Amino acid sequence: MGAPADFSVEERSDTGAVLRFAGDLNIATIGPIDTRLKSVDQTLALIDMSDVGHIDTVGAWIVHRLARDHGCDIVNLSESGSRLVDAVGKSDAGELERPHRPNVVTRVVGGTGEGVILAFTSMLAMLSFFGSIVRAMLAQAANPRRIRWAATVRHFELVGASALGIVGLMSFLIGIVIAQQGAVQLRQFGAEVFTVNLVGRLTLRELGVLMTAIMVAGRSGSAFAAQIGTMKLTEEVDAMRTIGVSPVEALVLPRVAAAVLMMILLAFYAMIVAMAGGAFLLWATLDLPIATFIVRIQEVVPIHDFYVGMIKAPVFGLIIALSGCYQGMQVRGNAEEVGARTTAAVVQGIFMVIVLDAFFAVFFTEIGWG
Amino acid sequence: MSAARQKECDVAIRITGLTNSFGEDVVHEDLSLDVFHGEILGVVGGSGTGKSVLMRSIIGLQVPDTGRIEVLGESILDGEEEDVSIRSRWGVLFQGGALFSTLTVAENVMVPLAEFYPEINSKLRREIALYKIALSGLPADAADKYPSELSGGMKKRAGLARALALDPDVLFLDEPTAGLDPIGAARFDELTLELQRTLGLTVFLITHDLDTLHEICDRVAVLADRKVIAIGTIPELLATDHPWIQEYFNGPRGRAAAVSHADEERRQNRFPAQSKSRGFKS
Predict the structure, then answer these.
(1) Which of A214, A252, B124, B272 has the lowest tally of Cβ within 10 angstroms?
(2) DSSP secondary structure letter of residue A249
(3) B199 → closest Cβ in A57, A95, A336
(4) What average pLDDT does the segment B37-63 reach?
(5) Which of A63-77, B76-90, B223-237 has the lowest mean pLDDT?
(6) pTM
(7) Contacts with B, A 85-124, CB within 8 Å
(8) What residue in B sits closest to A82 (Cα-Cα)?
């Protein structure tokens, strides 16, 4: 790509030090000589450009910077070259001060403090977001014509109906895994028959609803955050507000309603399918007839196990929808934010579900539903 | 002057027999177009006539069904994706600026520099970015801002700074003045013209802005019926009797732009020393 750039400095008695450039001075050739130019330590009196071939704005910038730093003149510059040097000279804003970076200790301590403050403020913000949802819900209850049926039903389909396949498959496999592992372990005590208790109680109380919640958080919580976040970016949410449509009513409530109601149905479905998986495995490996399994389930699983699962389901749905919609509404600025908020929605949703699940476990045992 | 003429006869972009289609929908059919060195070519056409598709074909983002495209003597379609040498010789300003939203303006300009010339050290890279940003008419403090903190006009200027990062020979501008206020649009036109003259650029400019066409374009290509139906200076285009061209330039907006341009010409003829507009080549 042309002749490589080069320069030489000669000491002349009449003028002083003269720097003579040679070759092409452009973006492709300038890299190697830039550092060498920095090491020129004598004060230059002239920059001679007579041997320079092609020059572009990067070359012009180098020449301009050298002339500026040494306070010297440029001679024998071609017409186009001097136009470029003039243009970049006019665009020389001087070095901008880069923002000062504090040292590591300050940054770590400051970061920790900011994290704590952020945790508390976002907890408050989420609480107020929940408040605005309750208020919107009351407003809609007072005036049922404002309920957005079409959007709500649409989200029923997205959150509920289209999740049936994956939730069903997952639950069936969970049921199989519990039954198989249970059978292997209990066989050591000759107590294989208690596998039925294990499958029934575990799926109804814990795993049916918990795994469904994790699946819904991954499928729908993330979708809520991404959808609302993108709408925030494209100013759709602002447009809604100006038209007088409350984004909480139009966007958040249908999603919350869908997540709460569909979690109940999906959790119930997951419980049944998981037990079917367990029954299938026991029939296949222990020759336990399906009918016997059903009878045994009715005998050994207390009905309150089913209630425990069904009480948890809508709460988990609410948590997932809340964190999804809340994180979506927090999106500001750029596309990266949508990704970050979507991740936050899922992580926060699953984390809160598991924390709450632990609370529920203690609570229900305390009230005698152990 | 003859040297300049000679230079203009060099073809910077040559398109021959270009056909583009999306399924059933044929956008271009046997389209041919030459863009000369050092000219500003305006491309106009109704919505959906494939102006942007044409630009995307030239810069290799859209692979045409048939046809041949040469930029600065190199064929775009024969080369493989990794053949990037030609990509360092053009700069593209997309309609919305298409700035990388997670980088500051200065970092945006530094991306192509780092990509093509990693041997340039980061200090010089930043200096280059800063003067390109100033060259594009942005204030110095815009350099460390993020695109979301800029207004629409500033985003376009920042996009222009990035397009100019590698000192390209050819500059592609997709509706640079769309969405700008008239003052901002006029400033952007001036900037384009000034940069084109100082840096000796060839400019391929898609626009709907009649003022831009009158003020800075050397020639105008009209896209319609899947082809370039006419190309030339505005007076030459007006001499054709294609109904779309007549309606375009002689509609109420077209006439207003022509009148204001003629006024300016007259003013400048009276004070030739202040003349800035280059007018048309006949």
Answers:
(1) B272
(2) I
(3) A57
(4) 86
(5) B76-90
(6) 0.67
(7) 87-88, 90-96, 98-99
(8) B198
